[in-house]
Structure formats: C-alpha cells, structure tokens
Write a structure and sequence with these properties.
The complex is a heterodimer of chains A (352) and B (755).
Chain A lengths: L4 E3 L4 H7 L5 E4 L5 H6 L7 E4 L9 E3 L5 E4 L4 H5 L2 H6 L1 H8 L4 H6 L2 H5 L51 H7 L3 E6 L2 E6 H4 L18 E7 L10 E6 L10 E10 L2 E10 L6 E2 L1 H7 L6 H11 L11 H19 L24
Parallel strand pairs in A: 1-3, 2-3
Antiparallel strand pairs in A: 4-5, 5-8, 6-7, 6-8, 9-10, 10-11, 11-12
Helix pairs in contact in A: 5-8, 10-11, 11-12
Chain B lengths: L26 H5 L15 E7 L5 E5 L2 H6 L3 E5 L29 E2 L5 E7 L2 H10 L3 E4 L11 E2 L12 E3 L2 H6 L3 E9 L11 E7 L2 E5 L5 H12 L6 E4 L15 H13 L3 E4 L15 E9 L5 E13 L21 E10 L12 H18 L4 H7 L17 H12 L11 E2 L5 E12 L5 E8 L4 E4 L9 H13 L6 E4 L16 H25 L14 E4 L2 E4 L6 E3 H8 L3 E8 L3 H6 L3 E12 L6 E11 L6 H20 L31 E5 L23 H13 L10 H5 L6
Parallel strand pairs in B: 1-13, 11-12, 15-16, 20-21, 27-28
Antiparallel strand pairs in B: 1-5, 2-4, 2-6, 3-5, 7-16, 8-16, 9-14, 10-11, 10-13, 14-15, 17-18, 18-26, 19-20, 19-25, 22-23, 23-24, 26-27
The chains are: A alpha+beta (352), B alpha+beta (755).
C-alpha cells in the first residue's frame, strides 16, 4: 500500500476543500475502498474520512412525505428503521440481502452507492481494465465472464454494478443529494450512473470533489409499499453478489396493475430500470402471462457479453418471479433469508 | 518447557476420560484471545517480509525494479535470484520426507502464477508491501497451459504419496460383456484450495547456528529435519513452536518456499523476520486439490451385482513436481466386483503443485464414484441403498483382505432410518415442498483409510500424584489436544484435571504427523503407552515395598484408577501414587511410549472407517438455485474418544462436502492462467445459511486390529459420501444429472423450462 495522507474534516465544506488535491479519495466505512487499496487496485494519495462529519447520519421524514437518508447512515440501521422499512420494504429487503451482518453494520449508504464493480479483471492490477486504467483494454472480454453484463455493456467494459440497495432505490425513483464546491444539487438515481460506452472509468455524474450527502425517496414511492419485493439469485445462499436480482413494485387497483416499477441488478454497470417492462404491465391483470411478457420486454435488448447467455434466461425468470412475489403482497415481517428464493414463507401479507 | 502453553485441566467427571464429550481444552484461550498463533509472535527487532508473486504462469522474469523498492522508506532488503544467499540444498534434492520441489528464488523461471519471485523485507508490513509492489516485474511470457485440453496426459509413476497408479483384478471387458445393464459416465472436479482461516505464517529468529520458528505446522518434528536440511544444521538445532493452527487441511504439513526464504532472510539480516501470506498468496505456493476428470464403466448382472467396475482418473499436476490426486483409489475398497480396474493418468499444467487436501484422492474419487453408483443403481432398476447392499464388500475388493472391522451395514441402516430413506420414490421430480420447490433425496457411502504413523510420548508422575504428559502433536482447531489429553489421562489412571498436557513444540517427543486422519490413533497410542509405562514403574516400587499395602502383589497385579493403585484381587487394598512415590523418595517417575501399528495386523487386514450419508436438497424449479436442506451421516470409526469433537469433525467434513458439491472452484483465466477468484469473497465456501440441520450418528464399532485402543479417525471421512449424496439428491429433485462439479444454476437452467 502506498503512503497516503489521512484527513478527517469536520464539515462538508472542509471535506470538499480537502478533495481539491488531485488523487484524493473520500473514505466512508472503507468496506470496499480499503480492500481495493490493499490489492493495489487504487492508490489514492489522500484519504478524506467522511465518517466524522456532522448531520449526515439521520433518517428523516420530510414535510412532503418523502424520506431523506443521510449518507452516513449504516446499511443495517436503515434496514432496521421501522418507519423506513414499512414505507420502502423492498429497499430494506435489498439491504438485508447484501454482504454480511458485520459489513452491513459498518457500511454506509453513501458508500454503497459508490462501491466499485466486482469484475475480477478490475480487481486484478495485472489485467487490462479500461475502468482502472483508461485505454488499457478489457481482459474480461474473452475471459472468465460468466457473471458479466448482458445489458448496456460496450466493447470497452462488460462489468456490472454490484449493489442490491441501489437496485431497489432505482425502482422507487430515489434521488441523490450532492454537495460540491458549487453548492448542492439533486440527481435522480436513474441519471446518477453512467453506462461504460467508451469511457468506463467515468462511473457517475459526480464532479471532482462532490460528496453524496443524502438519498431521498419520494412520498409517492410509498404507494407501492403493499406490493414490493426484492429477489436476488446466486449460487451461495448468503454473502454473495447477485447473478441477477430484481426489485419489483406494483400498484394494483381492482385487480389491475395501474403502475409498475422494475429495476434489475447484476446485469449492467448501473442498476437497470426497465421502462419497457413497466409499460408492458400497465393496465394488465397481475397474471403469470403478464409477468412473462414484462420479463421478455425487460430483456429485449439483452445480449451476452461472453459466456453468460444463461443470465438472459435466468434474468427473465427472476423478473417474472419478482413481479409475482410483489403481486402476492409484501410480507408483514421481513422473511428469514431476505430476497432469497429460499426466504421463509411468512404467510401473513401486509398492506392489503 | 517455558514456551509451551499450559492448558487448564478438564472438569472432574464421573468415570473414565475417554468417551466423555469434553469441550476443547483450548477453547477459553481462543475465545478470550489468549491463544497465540504463529503470526502473533513479535520478537524485538522483528522485520516484516512480503513476497512479490508472479502474475504470469509460464516464462521468465526479465526485470525487477529493486532500486525503487529499496528506495522506499523502511525497506531493508530485497531478495531476488540475483542476490539470494546460498542454501545448503537445491529444491531438487528433496532429502527429507514429503519434500516437494519448491520455490526458493533459485532462478528467474516462472512456472505458475502466484509463484514467489522476490522477497522484500522492511521495518513495517506496509513498507514491505509497497516495496514488493514497486518491484514492478516485467516478464517474457509463454502461453499458459491451465486446462486439461491444453496438454497431453501421461502415465505417472506414482499417485498421491507413493501409491501405485494402476491396480487391476479380473477382466473388465469380460465383466462388461456379460452384464445385463451397463453405464459409462465421466465426471469433472475443479481445482480447489484449502483456505484455512489462518494464513500460512512464519516468524524466524536465529541464535548462532540455532533457529526458532513460530509457524503453524502439521508435522513438527519431521519439519525440523526439513528446515535443518535447507540450512545445513542438525534437526535438533531447529525449534518449531506451533501451539495452535487455524486450520491446516494438509497444506501445513509440507514445507513451502516462502518459509525457507523467511528463515534465510532472518539469517541474512541478523534479525527476526515475519512472513504471513495474504489470502491471494495462498492460491499457488501452498498446495491445492488438483482438478480431475474421472471416467467410469460399470456392468451389472440381472440381480444388480457389479460384474465390472472401471475407474480411470486424469489428475492435474505442475510442470515440475508430481502430486497426482489418487481419485481412482476410492474404488479399491468399497464395492465388490469380480473385475476391478483403477488407473490414473496425469496432466502437467502451469500451476502450483497440488498437494494433500482434506481427503486427498478420496474426496474427488468418492464424489465421482458415488454419483456413478447412483447412475448404476438407476440402470439396474434398484433403490440406491439396495444397490449398495447388493454390492456390499465382505472383503476388500482389490486386495481381498478381510476388514479389521466394518460396521457399514449398521451405518446404512441407522442413517436410512434417521433420514426416512424408505419413503424415497425411485423416479426423479416426484417431491415438492409447500412453496413448490423441487425436493430430492440422495445418498453416498463414505470411506476413508485408517492409517497409523509413528509417534513417541513421555509421561511423568509427580510427587503430588499429578502427572505431566508430553508429545509434539498438532491441534488444527479440531480438538486433537483434548482427545489426546483424555487418552493420556486414561493411560495414567488419573482424572484429566490431574494431568498437565504439553504439545505443539518440536522439543517434545515426536508426536508424528497430524494427517491422514491418523493423529489421534498414533499420538494417542504413544501417550497411552507412556502412561502405562510410568504406571508399570510405579507398580514396581509399590509391590516391592514392604510398607505398601500392595507389597507382594506383583504376581497378582494391580490396576491404576483415580490416582491410586489397587490390588487386582482386592480393590480395597490400595495406595495413592503420591504415597508410593513419597515413601520411595522419588520426586518424579517417567514413562515412555510409542505409537505405531502392529506390522502383522497391517499386513493381514484392510483398515477403514466407513459411513453412509443421506442428503436432501431443494431446488427452485425455475430459478434453479440449490440449497441442501437436510444431511444425515452415520459413521463407524472404531472407538470414539470424544463424541462431541468427533461429531464436530464429521459435521465439518460434511459441510466441506456441501462446498465441494455446490460452490468450490478456482477459476483460472484461460489466457494468463491466473486464478481470478483468489479471495474469500469470490472463491465460495459454505456460509451458515448454506448449512442445513445436520445429524451425525456415531455407530458403535469395536476394531481389535487397528491398534490396542481401537481408534480409527474422523478427520476426513465426512467429505466422502457427502458430495455424491448431494449430487444424487439434485438429480432426484430435478431429473438432471450434472457431471461437473460444482453443480450450479447454469447447469440446471439449460435443462429446465420456465414452466
């Protein structure tokens, strides 16, 4: 690990000023960044520790009914916040399906948004990676890529975004509150991440020095609370990243879907919102046929980036199942093994 | 000895020590953090070593930026092939047992990704790490060969540790020709890595021509000879301290290059040096379970009896050393067949040399054999248990020797009863749970040899009637010290609380190898014999002392119990050990013992532990995610010294079987040859959520031939049987036979429709 400077600012403004130094990196809990530093994947020369900033650790209900989550709130704390998990149960389910209890206790929600891909070639400094070293090439292409992207990839990069949390946030139209030298701004999460294109090293719309200060979930997202689920498929029952995951939310009135939300994880370099699938569902009865139609729509543009064609078929099945689970209703209690196909059958359905 | 750790005595319990489910003697030390593992030893002035490891699989190192590394603050020395001080032997010499051709910076050749190519020594771990990075090696790379199909196979001279590569009896073709039903099937198992929780580590400090090594080690005294050989000093000048191991699984029995380089660095720099592997560095230099391809042909007669069983394995090894996974040998000793053939081929790849990994040969071989037997049972139209019973071997099939003891029928019966096997439908895809998941049941037979090695021990009776017992054994975390302590106490006729137990130090009598599932039997026999020897000497004192109530009992005999000698014909006449010693004016009385198998028994009998494993899996019918939902294992392994620890070992083995069946695989990039998942996030082993409710049944077995105490072993057998049972359950749930491990979503997805 290179020698680096460690700074602990006491205000956001101070942090932003400190980040003016090239080669600076913001440090949250470090559950991802420190691993990357130890592996020689990234070598910042200045770490700016954000975890002591004041006022970023709150979960607040705003007057307009939306909910604002400070960037330093821990994943576990948010998942177990009663008001939050009641309003946005799929987000809580996604959070609890990620990592391990120990990591969730440490990890911050702002850091979760900024976690890097799990592409093994990105994590291996001896491999070519356009994301790690622009212009060096992509060894994932033609390599071991069974877990790689099937949507939105480019000839420069076939990596995926690993977050579960962000998938559920994307389905529910979250916005990200950002502060930089130029002041505060808000960006919808659907616009926050960039697809790789020719510049896979550019991953988000954050400008140099900008900090995520909060995540907001809109009031109307709570309208889906009775019918929203997160489903995550993987080989290991827990403590593994998704092969494919889906956050599905439905509004159902008189047996008809009035509005649907669908976002996918593990398929692209951003949490993948599928407007086509959502449109395909509007006005239909919540039937298996409708869900399969939506699944086809969600993957209409999918193509394998290597030896991962199976993920397209798997993804369709995940979407159909997630929609069926959402239609069946949000369980009253968080199931054991949240988001797993082996989640306990809790029986009782909430909000219906 | 001041630098061994004294373990607290056990709780007083009624009855004997052996057979009691005592908790681990070292448990408190571990949960309170008082247990010192090798890397916890930080002598004054200690330096930190970090190796640079090759990122190509084949070729040559063309440059290392030694200047940049040396210029980094804190870096003390950079050792490369250009300046490496001489060693007393070359890697090819291999003058000690279990010697492998290892990497000691002998040249600039790269033979596998992950090979050590330089060592940087610095005042801090961080400086050494950055120094190693700054070396920025350049290479002349040749095409990496890391897959079976990249090379031609060859006929090895030996497999495993010196075993013959071919064993045959009867005529396979004739057996197949007369068969009513036949199967042929091929299976594939991937490279797997030990991934002990504790990384390999070494702290080396020299004092003149003597060196002390803190390093986790499964073969303490043997290793003193190995390190002595590398440095041209006698074994007694090498002290190895290994009080605790955080798992070994075979990978800490064999000396590897980084250890030798650490000792060398300490000598070169005149300061203690510590070297601890990073997790990714454990994928290459410290062994692994080699990949296999296994092809079977089996024929069955009208009654479902095997007429031929052929098992051909191709195993991978490195380009410079042989460790050929002896998987076909799993077929030698289990199912009766008039024609039996087991053969091995090998393929040299640009990989680190494989080595023994928990149940070497047996784990991979059993995974494939038990799957093939399931296919054979189906072909014969028989329930898999019934098929196994019809092919039950009354004598060892390849050698025709009688078994020393074999309670496998009881294992089948008790396991099947507990599991509810009789309700299993023959056909697949017949069972679902309430949530609509596919449910399948499968079984496998477990088999593992019951070897013994050589061990010595000492027992010392003290004036106060207590005792000290000593042997240089190794506890990998499974509780060996506790079981050995129990046996030692019984040898002395003392409660365990009265017996102090020292182990884990090479200065003690040679405790042998903690491997082959033979440590308890071997070191335990030595400890028991040492206790008996001390008691015999004590008896001599008593029966010849006119003042003793035991005077003259020499011909009648005495028994040692609860710290007293009793006349055999009149137990009311007794005297305490302390009283006997005090009157004789003896402050300490020593005994010695050895553990080894009676050669005639070894020649006459086939000696194995047996078991039967039953698995239930659930599979999501559309998403194809798999979860083991129930495991029952019934094992017969001779006398069980500590049922709690034995069951725990068996649970651990069975859980390892879950990993083998469903998760574990090192993924090589086919171009660079590098392992792309060399970390615990991406190389998957089971987590708690993968582990179902499990039952372990310890089936009673009295084996009079393995050793005087009747002890076999339980360290490795749990993996065998389990892998096949899970694979067979997946077939039973889905109707899909996956012949490539690990079995995962992708393989099932292609075979199942979405409806």
């Amino acid at each position: 690990m290179n020698l680096f400077e460690y700074i602990r600012p006491t205000s956001v403004a101070e942090a932003i000023a400190a980040a003016g130094e090239p080669g600076s990196a913001y440090l949250g809990a470090g559950t991802n960044l420190l691993d990357l530093m130890k592996g020689g994947v990234t070598s910042p020369n200045r770490l700016i520790d954000l975890t002591h900033l004041p006022d970023l650790g709150k979960i607040e209900q705003l007057p307009d009914g939306s909910m604002r989550i400070g960037a330093l709130v821990k994943n576990a704390a948010l998942a177990h916040d009663t008001a939050f998990s009641k309003a946005y149960p799929a987000v809580a389910e996604a959070l609890l399906s990620g990592a391990s209890a120990q990591l969730r206790n440490a990890a911050t929600v702002g850091g979760n948004l900024m976690q890097r891909t799990r592409c093994a070639y990105f994590a291996d400094p001896a491999s070519a990676c356009n994301k790690r070293e622009p212009g060096s090439g992509c060894d994932a292409i033609g390599g071991e890529n069974r877990h790689h992207a099937i949507l939105g990839w480019s000839e420069s990069c076939i990596a995926t975004h690993p977050s579960d949390f962000c998938v559920a946030l994307t389905a529910l139209d979250a916005t990200i509150e950002i502060e930089g030298a130029g002041g505060r701004r808000e960006v919808p999460i659907t616009d926050f991440y960039l697809l790789p294109g020719d510049t896979p090293h550019e991953e988000t719309v954050l400008e140099a020095g900008e900090i995520i200060v909060a995540i907001k979930l809109p009031a109307n997202a709570a309208g889906f609370a009775g019918h929203q689920r997160y489903l995550k498929v993987r080989e290991r029952t827990s403590y593994a990243f998704a092969l494919v995951s889906a956050a599905a939310a439905l509004e159902i009135e008189n047996g008809t879907i009035t509005e649907a939300r669908l976002a996918l994880g593990g398929v692209a370099m951003k949490p993948w919102r599928s407007a086509a699938a959502e449109a395909a569902l509007a006005g239909l009865s919540p039937t298996r046929e409708a869900f399969e139609k939506a699944a086809e729509a969600a993957f209409a543009d999918a193509r394998p980036s290597g030896e991962n064609a199976y993920k397209i078929e798997l993804g369709k099945r995940v979407v159909a199942r997630a929609l069926a689970m959402a239609a069946a209703g949000t369980p009253e209690r968080m199931p054991a093994l949240p988001a797993s196909p082996f989640a306990s059958d809790t029986g009782a359905i909430a909000h219906v | 000895m001041s630098d061994t750790i004294s373990l607290p005595g056990g709780n007083a319990r009624f009855g004997s020590n052996s057979g009691q489910p005592m908790t681990r003697r070292d448990g408190v030390l571990k949960v309170t953090g008082a247990a010192t593992f090798a890397a916890d030893n930080h002598p004054d002035g200690m330096l930190y070593a970090v190796t640079a490891n090759a990122t190509i699989s084949r070729g040559r190192v063309t440059s290392l930026n030694v200047e940049a590394a040396k210029a980094h603050p804190g870096v003390v020395e950079v050792i490369t092939p250009a300046n490496r001080p001489p060693l007393a032997i070359t890697p090819e010499a291999k003058p000690y047992p279990f010697a492998f051709n290892i990497e000691v910076l002998q040249d600039d050749t790269v033979r596998y990704a992950g090979q050590e190519i330089a060592m940087v020594v610095a005042e801090t771990l961080e400086a050494a790490t950055e120094g190693a990075r700054l070396l920025a090696p350049t290479y002349e790379a040749e095409t990496a060969r890391v897959g079976f199909d990249d090379v031609d196979s060859f006929d090895p001279d030996a497999v495993g540790v010196g075993a013959p590569p071919v064993a045959e009896k009867g005529d396979i073709d004739a057996g197949l020709a007369k068969a009513v039903n036949r199967i042929s099937a091929s299976y594939e198992t991937p490279a797997q890595y030990h991934n002990a929780m504790e990384p390999h580590a070494m702290v080396a400090q020299w004092d003149g021509d003597r060196v002390t090594l803190d390093t986790p080690n499964q073969a303490l005294v043997m290793s003193t000879g190995a390190f002595g050989a590398w440095f041209g000093i006698p074994p007694e000048n090498v002290t190895i301290r290994s009080p605790f191991l955080g798992g070994g699984f075979g990978s800490k029995a064999i000396v590897f290059g980084g250890q030798v380089l650490t000792v060398l660095a300490a000598k070169m720099l005149g300061r203690p040096v510590k070297y601890a592997l990073r997790r990714d560095q454990m994928y290459g230099p410290v062994g692994h379970r080699g990949a296999t391809r296994q092809a079977f042909r089996m024929g069955m007669d009208a009654e479902g009896k095997l007429t031929a069983l052929e098992h051909l394995t191709t195993s991978t090894t490195s380009t410079f050393e042989d460790f050929i996974e002896p998987a076909s040998n799993a077929s030698h000793d289990l199912y009766a067949s008039p024609a039996l053939s087991s053969r091995h081929k090998a393929a040299r790849l640009d990989i680190g040399t494989p080595g023994p990994m928990r149940a070497p040969g047996e784990a991979s071989g059993s995974a494939a054999l038990e799957s093939a037997i399931d296919e054979a049972a189906l072909a014969a139209g028989l329930d898999p248990l019934e098929f196994r019973l019809r092919n039950y071997a009354e004598t060892a099939p390849m050698s025709d020797k009688p078994y020393s003891a074999k309670a496998l029928r009881e294992c089948y019966a008790q396991g099947a009863e507990k599991f509810g096997w009789s309700k299993r439908p023959m056909q697949p895809r017949q069972m679902k749970d309430d949530a609509g998941r596919l449910v399948g049941w499968g079984m496998g037979t477990a088999l593992f040899p019951a070897p013994m090695f050589q061990a010595k021990a000492k027992a010392t009776l003290r004036a106060d009637g207590s005792a000290l017992v000593e042997t240089a054994g190794a506890d990998m975390g499974q509780g060996a010290w506790t079981a050995l302590h129990q046996i030692a106490a019984d040898g002395l006729g003392l409660d365990i609380a009265q017996v102090e137990f020292h182990s884990g130090h090479s200065g003690l009598p040679d405790g042998g190898i903690a491997g082959g599932s033979g440590h308890t039997a071997t070191a335990g026999s030595a400890l028991h014999a040492a206790g008996k020897d001390a008691i015999a000497k004590l008896t001599e004192l008593a029966v010849n002392d006119e003042a003793s109530p035991l005077f003259g009992a020499g011909n009648i005999g005495v028994t040692a119990r609860d710290g007293r000698l009793h006349r055999a014909d009149d137990p009311s006449r007794s005297e305490s050990y302390g009283e006997i010693l005090a009157r004789a004016g003896v402050s300490e009385l020593g005994g010695e013992g050895q553990g080894a198998r009676d050669p005639s028994s070894a020649e006459e009998y086939a000696m194995f532990s047996h078991g039967a494993v039953f698995a239930e899996v659930k599979v999501d019918p559309e998403l194809c995610q798999i979860r083991v939902s129930r495991l029952v294992g019934a094992f017969a392994a001779g006398r069980i010294i500590n049922p709690r620890l034995a069951a725990s070992q068996l649970y651990g083995g069975m859980i390892w079987g879950i990993g083998f069946a469903l998760l574990e695989e090192a993924v090589h990039d086919r171009r660079s040859g590098r392992i792309m998942n060399a970390n615990l996030a991406e190389y998957h082993v089971p987590v708690n959520a993968d582990v179902p409710p499990m039952d372990v049944i310890l089936v009673d077995e009295d084996d009079r031939y393995v050793n005087a105490l009747g002890i076999k072993g339980v360290g490795e057998i749990g993996i065998t049987g389990t892998v096949g049972a899970i694979a067979n359950a997946i077939w039973h749930a889905t109707g899909v036979r996956v012949r490539k491990f690990p079995i995962g979503i992708e393989a099932l997805l292609a075979e199942t429709s979405a409806h």
